[in-house]
Amino acid sequence: MSLTPRDRARRPVLDPTRLAFLTGREEQRFLADRPRSLALLDRARAHMPGGVPMAWMTAMHGHPPVFAAEGDGAWFTDVDGHRYLDMNQADLSMNVGFGPPAVVAAVADRMRRGSQFMLPTEDAIWCAEELAERWELPYWQFTLSASGANTEIIRLARHVSGRDKILMFDGKYHGHIEDSLVIMAGNGVKPELYGLSDAAASRARMVPFNDLDAVDRALAPRDVALCIVEPALTNVGVVMPAEGFHQGLRELTEHYGTFLALDETHTQIASPGGLKRLWNLEADAVGLGKTIGGGVPIGAYGLSETLAQPLKQPPVMQGAPMESVGGVATGGTLYGNALSMAACRAALSQVLTPQGFVRTAALGAQLADGLAGLFAAGSLDWQVHRLTSRSGFTFADHLPRNAAEARELAQPGLYRLLRLWMANRGVWESVATAGPTVSFAMAEAEVEFYLERMREFLGDIL
User: Fold this and answer.
1) Residues 230-279: tens digit of each pLDDT
2) Across-strand partners of 301?
3) 273 and 178, same structural domain?
4) How many other C-beta atoms lie within 10 A of the C-beta of residue 393?
5) How far is Cα 458 from Cα 417, in angstroms, rounded to an integer?
6) Do 185 and 304 share a structural domain?
7) What is the DSSP letter of 65?
C-alpha cells in the first residue's frame, strides 16, 4: 500500500548525527569485546594477506572478522565466547545448520571407509536420481562449488551451440569465474575486478533484470550460446521477477536458439526443487551448490538431453595420459568425490526434505510478518520482500525492480550500524547484499529472538 502525503509527513527522519554516534559506540564495543579475535588477526597477518585464509573475509562485513570456534544448530560461537544466531549461514552454505546429525554420521563413516577414489560411488547415483526428480532435468554432474557448475554449463552450451557469447543480468552473481565476473559499463561490459581478462568481457552481454525488450535486442544477433539467470536476483538484496518475465525469457531464448540456465545457488532453499519447481519454470540447465552438501564442499548441475549429449560420447585423447569425454573441458580431480556424495545424500534425505521446506517457509513468513509489523509500528516505510525462508527488507517505501534501483535504495552506513549493533547483541546479520534467512536448524524461538533484537535496534535509532 502506498503512503499518502500525510503519512509521508509523519515518517520519522533518521538523524544522521545520532546514527554516526551509535555507529561509533557500537564499533568501540565490538572491538573491545573481542580481544582474542583481534590478537589472532594480528598474528595471522604475518603469513596470510589481511590475516585471513580467503581475502573476502576482510571485506564482507565492514568490520574486522571474528575468529569462529564452533557451531551448533542455528548458532555459532567465536573465540571470545560470544554466541550468535546466524542469519547468513556462511552465505547459505550452512543453511542446514551446524552439525546436523545425519550429515555428521555420514561424513564420519565415509572418511573411515575412504573419502576419495576418483571413481563413482553408489551415493552418487542416489543423489543424481533425487536431483533429477526435484529439478525435473534428467542428467546431473557434480563439482566442488556452484562456480564450477556454472563454468561447465557455459562450456557445454558453447560447444553444443557453436556460439561464444553469454547473456547475464545486471546485479547477478554466478561465481568467481572469468566468464561471469563482468559488469555493465555504458553500452558495453567490462571486467568487474582486477586481474580479469578483457577477453572474457568481450564474450559477455548484460541487460537489466525484468527487461524483456533488452533481452530481445541482446539475443537478436543469434550469437549467444547461453543466457544464465537467477530466478530472483539475490546479490543486490532480493529483486523479484515481474509477472511474465520468466515465461517471456524462455520464449525469447527458444526463439533465438539460445540455451537457458537457472542459477539456483541461493534460491534452492525455496523448495525441494528450488524456484524452478515452485514457480514451474523451464530451463535447459540448472546450477546448484552450497546447501546440498550440508557444509561439505559440493556443486551440481542438471542438464537437458541436448546439453548432456556430448558427455555421453567416447573419451577424446588430448595427449596421454589425460582424457576428456566428448572433448568438452569438464571435470576435476575431486569432483564427485565419495565424501561430497555421502554428505549430499544425507543432507537431501534427512534434512532438506519436503517437510523441512514447508517448515522453513512458514518460519520465513513469520519473519516477514514480524519485520513488517515492526516497521509499521515505527512509522517506517521500509518494505519487506518474501522469498519463502529468505525474508529481508529494503530501507525504502518500495521494492526494487532491477539492480540499478536496488543500488539507489541501499544505505551502506545504516546497514553497517545494523550489523555492528546486532553482532554486539547475539545476532550474526546477513551480508549487505543478501537479507536475513531462516535456516533448517531454526525454530519459532530463533525467529522471535531476531525480531526482538530488531525491535530494540529500531528503538535505538528512532
Assistant:
1) 999 999 999 999 999 999 999 999 999 999 999 999 999 999 999 999 99
2) 141, 287
3) yes
4) 22
5) 11
6) yes
7) P
